[in-house]
Design a protein that fits this description.
heterodimer; A: Peroxisomal Thiolase, Chain A, domain 1; 10-stranded mixed beta sheet; 12 strands; globular; B: mainly beta; OB fold (Dihydrolipoamide Acetyltransferase, E2P); 5-stranded antiparallel beta sheet; 2 helices
C-alpha cells in the first residue's frame, strides 16, 4: 500500500506526578486533556486513546474511556482505553498512530491517566502483582519488585558490580530531576541517602524504585503539523514481546521485547542506534532502566553503571539518557508512565525549559515496557524543523 | 458473613499444579513446560502430564519486604527461582531463618504449605514452596 501520511505530535501536556488526593481519574484526565485541546484549537479529534492500567483494581471502573470523554464534553467521540500494564502508554500511542497513518482520523488525542494513591501501599502491591503471571507468580506473593531484584542480583554477579556501583542510576536521576520543574522528586540524592534507604527486595532499595504517583499526560497526533517551527514527527514505532513466566527465561539481564521493539522502530525510521541523541527509558526500577539501555544497544552490556558515573550519558555528550530524570524522578503513574516519557521527549527535542541546554538534538527514542519484558514499545521521534 | 476474597474455582482448577507441580511434556519433541501451555515450540499441541522432581537447586533469590495485602502477616517473603530437573520454577523459599546463608547452587526440596487464607473462617489456599535441604 502506498501511503505518504506522516504523523506529528502537535500538542503535549502533563500534570506533574504527585499525591493528588483531591482529584479523581476524571479531574486528572481533564487537566491534561484540556491543555492539549486548547493548544490545537478547533482540530477535529476523531478519537481519544486512554492509557490506564489499574482502573478496575484501584477505582472499580471499567470502560474508563467513556466516562472520561463524557466528563470533558466529548459525548460522541469514542474513547478507547488501552491496558497493557505499566506499558499501556506506548501501546496507546501505537494504536493512535496507526489510525492517523491509515487515514481513518486526521487527529487523535492520547491521554495517560492513573491514580495510584487511592489505596494503601499493600493494596497497591496487590494491583502491581497483576502484571505478573497471576496464577503462577502473583498467587505466591511475587511482585514486579521481586522480579527486578532478582534481575539486579544476576546483573551484579554477571558483571562484578557492588550495590554502590548501581546506585549511580538513582543518584543521576535525582540530579536530573532536581533541575526539572515537572519532576516529582526534585531533590538531589547522595550515595549515603541511597545506601541508607530501606530495602524493598534485596538488593533493591527504595531509591531504586520509581515512586508511585497519581498523574496524567497527553499528546495530540495529527497528519499535519499545526505550526512551522519546533515540529516533532513520529518517524518509527515498534512493539515486541518476550514470553511471560520468569522461570522460562535463560537470562534476566537482557530484555528481548525491548530489543525487538527498538529494532522495529528504528527500521521504520530508516535510522540506526548511532543516530539517536536522546533516549527516555522506562526505569520503574534502576535495573530495568539499565537493562533497557543495554538491550536496545545504546550501551554495551554491563557498561551502564560505569558510564553513568563518569558522566558519559550526561548533557553535552553524543547520547543523553533520561534528561527528564526518568520515572525515578518524574514518578511512576502506572499505565500513564510512558506518556510522561513521551511528553518529556517532545519538550527535550523542542528545547523547552528546562531542556533548553540540550541543543540541536534531532532524534529521540522513547521506550515503554509492561512488567518484566512482557510487551515493550519503542517510539522514534524526530524534530523536523 | 465471611468476606470471600479467594475464588474457589480459580484455585481448584490449578490444584494439579499447586499441589503436585504438574508440568507438561510435549509428546513429539519431549520439551517440558511449567506452567503448562497449549502449544509447544515445536508446533505440537499434544502433551502429557509431567510432575516435576521434588528436589532441585536454588538459582536466584530475593528477600521481599514490600508485599501484596494478603501476605502482610508473613513478611518478609523469600522469593526464589529454583531449577527442578532442568525446569525453572519461581516461588517462595521457606524454613530459612537466615536468608544471608542462601546461595545460588544450594539444594532445595519442594514442600506443601499454606499460601494464603481468607481471614479466620475463610478458604485456605495451599501450594508448593521450597525449603533448603541444609539448615539455613
Amino acid at each position: 500500500m502506498f501511503n505518504t501520511t506522516e504523523v506529528y505530535i502537535v500538542a503535549h501536556s502533563l500534570v506533574p506526578g504527585g499525591r493528588h488526593y483531591e482529584k479523581g481519574l476524571k479531574e486528572l484526565f481533564a487537566e491534561a486533556f484540556l491543555k492539549v485541546l486548547d493548544q490545537v484549537g478547533n482540530s477535529n479529534l476523531g478519537a481519544v486513546y486512554v492509557a490506564n492500567a489499574f482502573s478496575e483494581v484501584l477505582q472499580d471502573q471499567s470502560v474508563l474511556g467513556a466516562f472520561l470523554s463524557d466528563y470533558v464534553g466529548l459525548r460522541r467521540t469514542p474513547a478507547i482505553r488501552i491496558e497493557s500494564g505499566d506499558g499501556s502508554s506506548g501501546v496507546a500511542i501505537l494504536e493512535a498512530y496507526n489510525m492517523v497513518k491509515a487515514g481513518v482520523y486526521d487527529c487523535v488525542a492520547v491521554v495517560g491517566v492513573e491514580k495510584m494513591h487511592d489505596v494503601t501501599s499493600i493494596k497497591l502491591n496487590k494491583a502491581l502483582a497483576t502484571i505478573t503471571d497471576y496464577e503462577y507468580e502473583g498467587f505466591f506473593g511475587i511482585t514486579p519488585a521481586a522480579q527486578a531484584a532478582m534481575a539486579m542480583r544476576e546483573y551484579m554477579l554477571k558483571y562484578g558490580y557492588d550495590y554502590e556501583d548501581l546506585a549511580s542510576w538513582p543518584i543521576k536521576m535525582h540530579e536530573r530531576g532536581s533541575k526539572n520543574p515537572y519532576a516529582y522528586m526534585r531533590k538531589q540524592a547522595t550515595l549515603k541517602d541511597v545506601l541508607e534507604s530501606e530495602v524493598i527486595a534485596d538488593p533493591l532499595r527504595l531509591y531504586d524504585a520509581a515512586p508511585a504517583v497519581d498523574g496524567s499526560a497527553a499528546v495530540v497526533l495529527c497528519n499535519k503539523p499545526l505550526r512551522s517551527d519546533a515540529v516533532v514527527r513520529i518517524d518509527g514505532i515498534g512493539i515486541g514481546a518476550y514470553g511471560t513466566y520468569m522461570g522460562q527465561r535463560d537470562t534476566l539481564t537482557e530484555l528481548l521485547s525491548v530489543k525487538d521493539a527498538v529494532n522495529m522502530a528504528l527500521g521504520m525510521a530508516h535510522s540506526s542506534i548511532g543516530d539517536v541523541n536522546l533516549v527516555e527509558v522506562h526505569d520503574t526500577y534502576s535495573i530495568l532502566g539499565i537493562l533497557a539501555l543495554e538491550s536496545m544497544g545504546f550501551v554495551r552490556s554491563g557498561e551502564t553503571p560505569r558510564l553513568l558515573s563518569t558522566g558519559a550519558l550526561d548533557v553535552g555528550n553524543k547520547l543523553v539518557v533520561n534528561a527528564s530524570g526518568g520515572l525515578k524522578s518524574m514518578g511512576f503513574p502506572g499505565g500513564a508512565s510512558g506518556m510522561y516519557e513521551i511528553v518529556s521527549m517532545v519538550m527535550e527535542l523542542t528545547n523547552q525549559k528546562p531542556f533548553d541546554s540540550l541543543g540541536n538534538a534531532g532524534l529521540g527514542v522513547v521506550q515503554d515496557m509492561a512488567g518484566f519484558d512482557l510487551v515493550s514499545t519503542a517510539i522514534v521521534l524526530r524534530r523536523v524543523t | 458473613m465471611v468476606e470471600q476474597k479467594l475464588s474457589i474455582p480459580r484455585y481448584w482448577r490449578r490444584t494439579p499444579q499447586y499441589y503436585r507441580l504438574e508440568g507438561v511434556q510435549c509428546v513429539r519433541c519431549g520439551r517440558v513446560y511449567y506452567p503448562p501451555r497449549a502449544v509447544c515450540e515445536c508446533g505440537s499441541r499434544e502433551f502429557k502430564p509431567y510432575p516435576l522432581p521434588s528436589t532441585g537447586k536454588l538459582l536466584n533469590f530475593t528477600v521481599l519486604y514490600s508485599v501484596p495485602a494478603e501476605f502482610e502477616k508473613m513478611k518478609p517473603l523469600i522469593i526464589g527461582i529454583v531449577d527442578l530437573g532442568g525446569v525453572r520454577v519461581i516461588g517462595q523459599i521457606v524454613d530459612c531463618m537466615n536468608p544471608e546463608k542462601l546461595n545460588p547452587g544450594m539444594e532445595v526440596e519442594v514442600v506443601f504449605r499454606m499460601v494464603k487464607m481468607d481471614g479466620t473462617y475463610g478458604l485456605i489456599n495451599y501450594g508448593y514452596k521450597f525449603r533448603p535441604i541444609e539448615n539455613c
